[in-house]
Amino acid sequence: MVSLICTLRHHTDEVTCCAFSPSLLATSSGDKTLRVYTTADFSELPFSPLRGHGYGVHCCCFSSCGSFLLSCSTDGSVIVWSAETGEVKATLEHPGRSPLRVCALAPDSSLLLAGACDGTAALWDFRSKTLRRCATVSEASVVACCFSPCAQMFVTGCTRGDLKLWDAYTSLLHAEKDAHDLGVTCCCFAAQFIVNGCCVEFRLASCGQDSQLKIWIVSQREGAACTMKLLQTLTSQTAPVLSCAFSSDGEWVVSGSVDKSVAVYDASLGTVLQTLKQHDRYVTTVALSPTFPWIATGSMDRSVNVWRIGDEDDSTAESKETQCQGRKLPGHSGLLLTDWSEDDVQTWLRDEGLVELVSVFKANNIDGPELSQLNKETAAELGIESVGLRGRLLRRIEALKAEQNGSEAPDEFLCPITRELMKDPVIAADGYSYERESIESWIRGKNKTSPMTNLPLQTTLLTPNRSLKMAITRWKSNQELRVAQHLITKAD
Questions:
Q1: Are strands 33-38 and 163-167 parallel, antiparallel or unpaired?
Q2: The pTM is what?
Q3: Which pLDDT does position 466 carry in this prediction?
Q4: Angle formed at CA 72 by CA 69 and CA 74, multiple of 5 degrees
Q5: Looking at the chain, which terminus has fewer C-beta neighbours within 10 angstroms, N or C?
Q6: Could you give phi then psi for residue 412, rounded to 5 degrees?
Q7: In what order do the strands lie in the sheet with 68-73?
Q8: What distances in angstroms separate CA 406 from CA 134, 147, 401, 482, one per listed residue?
Q9: Residues 116, 100: contact at Cβ < 8 Å?
Q10: 381-384 contact pairs (CB < 8 A, 24+)
Q11: Are 270 and 234 in contact (CB under 8 A)?
Q12: pLDDT for 441-455, tens place per residue?
């Protein structure tokens, strides 16, 4: 009934969100980028990846017409992109610069909502890009939000476990305390609703850390208070459920879980239709296409799986799977960086959006081994004068090295803020280790809360983590030795 048609492996960190427009698929990641694919063959568009956020991207969504793509990040901003060109149309900053965990656009594109770690929700007039209001909606981080199909209401969910229903002026209509024990993780409305006289009924799905997916009936009656009634509790998954989404016709609801599975339910009966188990780590996000029978699922394993709903003959499925993969980058072909030719390097530069460096690298005959040894000094010697361009190049090279088989850095070696390998790790008051420069910048930016827990930092004192630094140094030495051994073997 549901079959895997392709796997996209372009992100270098966990996939945090997937979103469909009528013709595109967008994905976001902790690697600070968004990637955009055409649903014609799931090849990546020329302007992808999109880079503009300073920290990891938590959420992305399209406008209903598909013209705009929105994303929000730990950097406290929402970026509005042109879905046709990848151009930045607007950057909207949270008034308190609090990290943003989730964003949603009203179905009629009138309002833009973003939920923040400080418990506030910022509401903008989307057409004018002006802030309408920033209100405290929770005592905990806002990690879920969605608009009703009529665009007159929205729901927020928080890490404390409450679901709250608001009108378009952020007046509270209904509060469902402890909807999910230990915290809400996601919520979404079905596109369909029922009008019965002066009463309108909507279906809302929510999921949480309690390993449950719940279906609610939200009723709005003229002249009366809104109500939320629990319709079903679905418990087929055995670990926290991180994401949920309705199909465009409202017949199915799909959820992704920490148990690495994707559950497909009959939304009316609550019965499990199929369980998909193709990811190697937590399934962090699920999305369904509004126009085609496709499901996209993203995971901490850095991959996005695209699934087809319905029967398809083997030859068609095989053909589509080949198309979905597209042309693989040299780094995904199984070749070590040290085996790359000059052409491989130049192709990689183009695919990473570094086209302006192709002529420089061609003139200097840079191949894989030389690329792997490139640093700030040698990049400057090549005549790359722009500090920003040199920095982008070196970060891409580090990410590329991390992709090589057996060379992926352990997660604890990466700074939680930048997701980059730490050079000078320090321990903050929350007990977590960060790259010194990153956490100092975080604190200077008036963020006196922990990037990991959102709780106030009792002190800004930072303690060097010498044992972690030594472990990272040993790991780097082992990787360098591995490359050297490969070169010796190749020479022999």
A1: unpaired
A2: 0.70
A3: 85
A4: 160
A5: C
A6: -70, -10
A7: 57-62, 68-73, 77-82, 88-93
A8: 46, 44, 10, 9
A9: yes
A10: 384/357, 384/360
A11: yes
A12: 888 875 678 887 777
